[in-house]
Design goal:
Elements lengths: L10 E7 L4 E7 L12 H8 L13 H8 L9 E5 L2 E5 L2 E2 L10 E9 L4 H25 L1 H22 L4 H15 L1 H15 L2 E6 L3 E6 L1 H7 L7 H8 L7 E4 L11 H9 L6 H8 L3 H13 L3 E4 L7 E4 L8 H11 L3 H6 L5 E2 H5 L6 H16 L3 E10 L19 H9 L4 H17 L2 H14 L4 E5 H8 L3 H10 L4 E6 L2 H4 L3
Antiparallel strand pairs: 1-2, 1-6, 3-4, 4-6, 5-6, 7-8, 9-10, 11-12, 11-13, 13-14, 13-15
Helix pairs in contact: 1-5, 4-5, 5-6, 9-10, 10-11, 16-17
Amino acid sequence: MENKYLYAPMSLLFVTLSESHEQISFAYPFEASETVICEDPLHLEAINRLDSISPWFFSLKPEILAHLLSGKGATNLPFELKIDNMRYVGYPKMVSTPRGRSPRIFNVVFVVGANMSADLVTCYEELSEKIAIAIDSEQTRCNYLSVHMSIILDAHDALDRQQSSNSINLRNYESECFQKILVNSTLAVDLCNIFNDLSDYGLVSVFLNEVVEIGFCLVERCMVRAGLAPITSQQIESQIRLIRPYHAIFLLDDVIPGPDASSDLQRIKKYCTPDRSILDISNASGLSMMQVFCIVRHLLLWARAVVVYPVCLENLYSSSAYPQLPLKNYTEKFRHIFQEELPIILAQFSPPSTLDQFLDPTTHSEYNQIIRYNMVLFLLRYNLIVQLHTFIYLMEPFSDQIVASDALAHLKDSEMRLALEKLTVSEVLKAHIAAICNNLLDIMPKEQAMNYFNLFISMTPLLNGEHHIEDIMFRLGKSRLVVTRILEIFANVLCTFERPDFIHSQFS
């Protein structure tokens, strides 16, 4: 399926039920039957879009389909029905205050592929519910549904009379009817805009009757449009639980807050750069960590940002072993921006390279370093490179080095000996650590050796392969220089390996 239609609905149906009718009152897209003259730009845009959208046709007669989708006996509940290779998803709504020509029940139905995942089906059910609640609230407030049902029913009645007097094709009849409704009903226009926004962007922001806002994000569709592999909102929630204050936020597009958006979002946006951690953003913006985390969660769930580790010279990057989308999706764009070939640049991260090595100030001018820095941001933005973090295990050496079994008993410093005795590791490992400590006491002042030893002891709960150097730095409040120095001193009892952060590897 083309990216244009990936995860997007095939069609939208507005099904209504009253004492006098049970019908598909409106459907979109439909096959345009003739050129329509319309001065209202909102109506005209929805009509013109029909030239670029392929209508979907159904195997069942409209009357039978309307009866199946009306939701009679199952109102105010999520609705799902599979027929042939299509799935009909909606939320039949009982009208709270039926007046005039309003129906008793209506259902905004999205037609999607039969094999669509359960998570996506749930998303469409939630959107249908939002639309239904908005329509019903406006009906209660100002007879909104009654007014538009009059327009819709008049269009159907007029074409019923035309069909009875002229033997016209049913499909042409439906197209003329829906086209007439689209010209005269803002409800139909709003439904069309919802359908088009879902297809184009995966985001919906429509003010029904210019009063009630319907906001919705189809994360999978947004990710595809952003050039990223799709993940579900449930996966994003799992990812959010792994975020730490040392992570950074990479905005995917220009995030323009709406007129009624929180002022905190605007404040955070000013400081949201890939080289700034969430903790830095909190300090710079004057907002609490909880406020920043809430806004970050909002940005992630609305597919406006991804999580990275703050970009710095020490970061080690590797080209992705399995790019989430084919490279051809990015090569032309990369060439257009940087006048370089993407595969050649990616090859410079295999084997892995630090940002400092990639920029290489001894080879590249200051201007070229800026260009190459932006290349790294591009590659991170599209997950074409991943950052490798160093994870550490505390374990016995693999070498055949022999350490006396009573090395711990002969440790020169009693404080170190007592601390090691309390450590919950094997006796062999304690003996190796004791040998390292004795060596430290021989080559440096006791106070300095004690500082290194105490830092190592405080680090041992984190040396289980679950924490990388940056996480250890954050938890202990120490600089990279201090942490790496401790790891170098006790390297004989440590095993290191490099891999992406859990927050990224979970969905790669």
